[in-house]
Design goal:
Blueprint lengths: L2 H12 L3 H8 L14 H10 L5 H6 L8 E7 L10 E2 L3 E5 L7 H7 L5 E6 L3 E2 L3 E4 L14 E7 L8 E8 L5 E10 L6 E5 L8 E4 L3 E15 L2
Antiparallel strand pairs: 1-12, 2-5, 3-4, 6-7, 7-12, 8-9, 8-12, 9-10, 10-11
């Protein structure tokens, strides 16, 4: 089977007419009439227009027609002496962080309209919610687009050296949300040191009064698209 035959198979699978395919990509209406392999330029144009097509399948016939997603789930903070019990089944809300003013508002309200989706993963520690990560401060452990699952907590229950989702007040009306390791500070018990995984981000000591909300990160989810 040549690559043009595989394209016909894909169009049948998606219910796309040959006319629409040729018209959308600017190809001759006779492009799909032969069974030969297409040129690299046309293959690149097709893969750009239909990004879900597995390029290896299109060019060689190997693998699946549609790209597959591979999900990595990592349970965090599971090496301390007190281990959380695992829940066989739970539904964890994935929140839209852009729809709230800060973590404190999200934690206290948990309004349904802020829920983008529900995550169902067996055998995880108890989690209160999940959000998508932005930025690179915890790279490579976390990268932008990863999902973190968290359990709300208070500063009195903190485990130094572990990873937290924090809301840090810059002033009376502005705060920023970040993911950091929380460590003891050399400046005394009223301060903590926020440390990034990424060595390009310098550690920062802040007063504990600046922390308006705190959650221990229980797990992370990364979806890798198989090319």
């Amino acid at each position: 089977m040549g690559s043009t035959e595989r394209i016909r198979e894909y169009l049948d699978y998606k219910g796309i007419t040959k006319y629409k395919f040729c018209n959308d990509l600017g190809f001759s209406n006779k492009f799909l009439d032969n069974s030969s392999n297409m040129g690299t330029d046309k293959a690149c144009k097709i893969l750009h227009h239909y990004p879900e097509i597995n390029s290896e399948w299109l060019l060689t016939g190997n693998g699946s027609m549609i790209k597959e997603d591979n999900t990595n789930i990592v349970i965090m903070n599971n090496d301390r002496k007190t281990i959380d019990s695992l829940h066989v089944s739970q539904e964890i809300p994935l929140y839209d962080l852009e729809a709230v003013a800060g973590l404190r508002e999200l934690f206290s309200s948990g309004k349904p309209q802020r829920v983008l989706d529900t995550i169902k993963i067996p055998n995880l520690p108890k989690c209160d919610g999940a959000i998508s990560v932005t930025g690179d401060s915890m790279y490579p452990l976390l990268k932008s687009g990863d999902i973190i699952l968290y359990k709300e907590t208070e500063f009195d229950n903190i485990f130094f050296g572990e990873m937290y989702l924090l809301s840090v007040k810059l002033n009376d009306w502005e705060e920023y949300i970040t993911v950091k390791y929380v460590q003891k500070s050399e400046q005394g018990s009223e301060f903590v040191k926020l440390v990034s995984q990424n060595s390009h981000h310098q550690p920062k000591d802040i007063h504990i009064s600046k922390i308006s909300a705190l959650a221990l990160i229980k797990a992370s989810i990364r979806i890798n698209t198989m090319m």
